[in-house]
Amino acid sequence: MATLKDIALKAGVSQGTVSRILNGDSTLNVAAETREKVTKIAVELGYRSVSQRHKDTRVRNQEKIKNSKNITVGIAQMFEMQELQDDIYYMMLKNMVEAECFSNGWNTVSLYRNSDGNFVKNSDGNLEGIVAIGRFTTEEIHSFEKYTSNIVFIDSSPDEMKYYSIVPNYHMAIRLVLNHFDEMGYERVAYAGAVYTYNRVKMLTMDPRFYYYKNSMINRNLFDENLVIDCEMNSGSSYEAMERYLEKNKKPPKALFISSDATAAGILKSIREHGFLVPGDCNIVTYNNTTFSESSTPPLDSIEVYLKENAKEATFALERFWNAEKLPRKIVIPCSLVIRGSIKKQENNDK
Asked: I want to staple 283 with a disulfide (CB 3.0 to 4.6 A). Which of 10, 180, 226, 343 is the partner?
């Protein structure tokens, strides 16, 4: 398995810089291009690979498709480069999509928002498909359609009768989190993250992680508004939200589900500055299982959402488009819980 030293040597930066980038340190003063370069190399070297790359059986006519045309796929991201510095999840997902396209012999180009807010490409030639990562407005989607009707969405599903989409199983994730806390002796579980995020057409609506958390806790007669730490999906906002919580409650929640690794950095910083321990004083499970949860001190239990499988399904979906399969599919990717010991078991049953 690749090490921080391997990544640092290839990227031409120090091991400390690599560590801080992969841990989502937003205070590190480096160029956005350096952050993207380091995360891309980390993916290429298999630093956080779920399993070894292997050759899957492709759908019918794949070889014919490869040999008959020079395929170019556009990739669009919801976030701008500056926003990606706070959350490497989407950056890593983009890199995995690019790697899957490359393994199929396809070219990729990035789509960017112009001054009018429409997505454009800075190259000549046609696009045989677009992979859109995140959530987009109706107008942004129309700008994709100017290039091609073969559009695959990852992490959103704007029109299930028109586009292929790949989304995580949020309900399954919340069940895994709450059952794990319950097994470790905790019934009252707090939530930290955005209560409202952009929906399938980029309009603010209740975040699906909070939706399933709230309904699950209501079904258990355990929902408490005072256990909801509402913040944006970045370390700065989560730090301020936890500071407000600690000022009011004097101690952190015993059990805490953090809805994104990007949020976890600020939460942990605040907890540590007040002298509380993880695990013990606060026991944590995060969502996304990026290199942050793996490399954090302590390493954090986290929901694995299988970025590689998302990327593979996106390329399969494009192939189905090219094979004239008219009816799109919505693909729900299951998740799993990676346990690293960030929850201390309660033996006294004081939940």
From this structure: 343
